Amino acid sequence: MTEHTSRHYERELQELKEKILLLGGTVEEMIASAMKSLLSRDAGLARRVIETDPQVDAGELEIDHHCLNLLALRQPAASDLRFIATALKIVTDLERIGDLAVNTAERSIELSKEPPLKPYIDIPRMASAAAEMLHRALDAFVKRDPDEARGVLAADDAVDKLYVQLFRELLTYMIEEPQNVSRALGITFIAKYLERIADHATNIAQMVIFMCEGRDVRHPAAQDLVAREE
Amino acid sequence: MKGTLMTEVRIAPATKSSPPASAAEETPMIQIERLELFYGAKPALKGISMTILKNRVTAFIGPSGCGKSTLLRCLNRMNDLIEGVRIAGSIRVGGADIYAPRTDITALRKRVGMVFQKSNPFPKSIFDNVAYGPRLLGQRGRAALEGIVEKSLRASALWEEVRDRLHESALGLSGGQQQRLCIARAIAVEPDILLMDEPCSALDPIATAKIEELMEELKNRYTIVVVTHNMQQAARASDYTGFLLMGDLVEFGETAKLFTTPGDRRTEDYITGRFG
Amino acid sequence: MLRTRLRRRILSWAVSGFCGFSVAAALLPLGCILLYVLKQGVSTLSWDFFTRMPQPVGEAGGGMANAIVGTLILISLAAAVAVPVGILSGIHLAEYPAGRLGAIVRFAADVLNGVPSIVIGIFAYSIAVLPFRRFSAAAGGLALGFMMIPIVLRTTEELLKLVPSTLRDGALALGATRARAAFTVVLPAALPGIVTGVLVAVARIAGETAPLLFTAFNNRYWSTRLDQPIASLTVQMYTYAISPYDDWHRQAWAGATVLIGAVLVFSLLARASTRRLERMHRG
Q1: B interface mutation test: which of C160, C174, C178, C282 has the most B CBs within 10 A?
Q2: Domain coordinates in residue numbering, chain C
């Protein structure tokens, strides 16, 4: 694509992209660290994850402000407009992912106070799947690659299945022995958070498809209603 | 992305393009105090006060007849040419009152250049157009003039397009080129301030974009004041914006703030298109 | 229905016919004059005519070289008088349109335009011939110049007013004084039209005879001195035409042909210059 005549406008758009990627990177780190703190039962690491959250919130505010200025001052059109709309939505998802990582870290601190219930196999699997989805979604955003984004959408199923499987397994633990309940619940919550993270990554991927192709692929069921109304 | 374990999010102040300089760098260039202007008995400007900062682009917006062009023309005393004009209040450029009785108008107009709405190249060659101002000020040497002409044409992003036809008539240029020529002509005398009265209103979007980009570069060396009836242009191209309505300055402030959260209801109505 | 259509058609025809007839009626005299003069004069036109002096009466041959040169000199003198005065006054009127002085000048120019040429001749006689006790080319140039002034002045003023004021503003915004802006920017912009105005004025005075009778008089000999009488095509034609000599009559016709040719050339030059300079201005 040729550049805008105004070099400053071009730079502002570039800055926006960089800020989002920076935020994405921070959030990815938070997920990884929260997982690590769970597996190595490191409460200190978990606390550091929690302390990173204000930065994420500040990043969200800053990016929103940047987008608002761009909308007011540059009257973006077509692909630029879709890019900024995407940015506004992605940032919300990233901030929520950050919160979910914090929640995971909080559960991890609680779980570290008791001996582990069982070896963690599925949780790390879910975590790496979700982190992978987020990474690919951000990648698709940078490269403006709708096919990569579609790959992310396809991967959501696997994460959902893992969650269902894990939930059933933990249910049996809870039924077997009342003493297991608090730990099993903690792990269940973590699994839920990871599943939500994967959902947010899916949202990001859907917005990337919108940004690239101009097609809104969210909520397929509702699309019919919208089409019928028009 | 996969750097240190805890990457810090850089929290830079969210700004528009070039961040406004720290307070120490914001130098006032023009101080307008309680300026009033009358065409005969009819008031056109009703007590306007503002400070225009150095090396910034300041835009005046407002509906037709609000006085923005009148205000602009006060800054280089072009309003003197109109019969029956009366001024009250003061305008200080670089500290000196330009309406003081013994002001040297030629010196003022060298310091405060102007570009008009409809480009007005003289019916001379491109070279002679740009050299007109320096010749007016006594510059005679051929080599010196050639140097000035080239420098000015480069600064207004026109040099590459006309370097081979400097001695052809300026009227053979396209509209956008003519306007850039007028800009080159204005900066050939090395003003401190450049006034632009709706410089793009006669130009197509591409030529307009080029001139706006030019303004962004020129502001590093000059203080630019633009009048525009296109408020999107003011949003794109200026650092500070003043909204005028029927001779009053309703609001004046940073463009980013004015266009996202205007302070006055009337500004909001105008910007959102609720003209009523 | 059919009757109104037919009526309309007939009416249209009739009006078109009338217009055509009027055009023919207007062009007819001009056509007749041109053809007749050409017919009478072209046979006498020769290289000799343009280069030889008039011969003593009775001798055949000879030409009007001195008269042709004389006319050119007179035109130049007239222009030398009228152009500076006319243009400078025109500039003043255009720059200060509302002044009292301007109104007076404008009125005076209009009146001067209407003064009969012979009266101007007599006036020039009294101020330029009587005090020096001799007829002179200078006096002739002066008289013709007086006649040119109103045309040049009004043309200049009108054309300067037509120059867009943004051009003047542009010069003023660069620091030029009003005078400097007027001379270096506005005047050059109006120059094509002013040149045309001068050419039109020249075409007008080239054919004047009456003023010259009292000022430049005539001269059968070669003279380019400004303080002596000088020959001119028009006066020479007059002299020959009222003489009894056939040869001179033929020369007069030839002179008429040359004069008409000259006026035609000036008029065409004026039109051509307008068009060319207009094109240059449009860019």
Answers
A1: C174
A2: 2-41, 49-282
Q: What is the CA radius of gyration of chain A?
A: 20
Contact across the interface for A69 and B2, Cβ inside 8 Å = no
Class of domain A7-229: mainly alpha
Would you list the domain boundaries of chain A? 7-229
With pLDDT > 90 as the criterion, what percentage of chain C qualifies?
34
Burial of C228 per CB tally in 10 Å (0-12, 13-18, 19+): middle
Question: pLDDT band for position C274 (50/70/90)?
Answer: confident
DSSP state of B27: -
HEC profile of A15-30: HHHHHHHHHHHHHHHH
φ and ψ at residue B234, rounded to 5 degrees:
-60, -40
Task: Quote the tokens at residue B239.
Answer: 């650092």
pLDDT over 90 for what percent of chain B? 71
User: What mean pLDDT comes out for the span B241-245?
Assistant: 95
Q: Are B195 and B76 in contact (CB under 8 A)?
A: yes
**Superfamily of the domain at C49-282:** MetI-like (1.10.3720.10)
Please determine, for residue C57, whether its predicted confidence score (pLDDT) is greater than 60.
yes
Contact at CB, B10 and A6, closer than 8 angstroms: no
* Mutation to test the A interface, candidates B2, B4, B6, B56, most A Cβ within 10 Å: B6
* A23 within 8 A of B9, measured Cβ to Cβ: yes
pLDDT at position C61: 65
Structural element, H or E, at residue C68: helix C65-95
- The residues, ordered by sequence, that sit 6+ positions from A223 with a Cβ below 8 Å of its Cβ are A216
Q: Which DSSP category does B9 fall into?
A: P
- Rounded to an integer, the average pLDDT of B6-24 is 41
The label of the residue with tokens 């901030």 reads A95
Measured torsion, CA atoms of residues B210, B215, B221, B222, in degrees rounded to the nearest 10: 140
Residue A177 Cα, gap to closest chain B Cα (Å) = 38
Q: Containing H/E element for C1?
A: none
Cβ within 8 Å, pair A7-B216: yes
Q: Please tell me the pTM assigned to this model.
A: 0.77
Q: Which domains does chain B have, with CATH numbers?
A: 27-272 (3.40.50.300)
Q: Name residues whose C-beta falls within 8 Å of residue C201's C-beta, 6 or more positions apart in sequence.
A: C82, C147, C148, C151, C152, C155
What ipTM goes with this model?
0.84
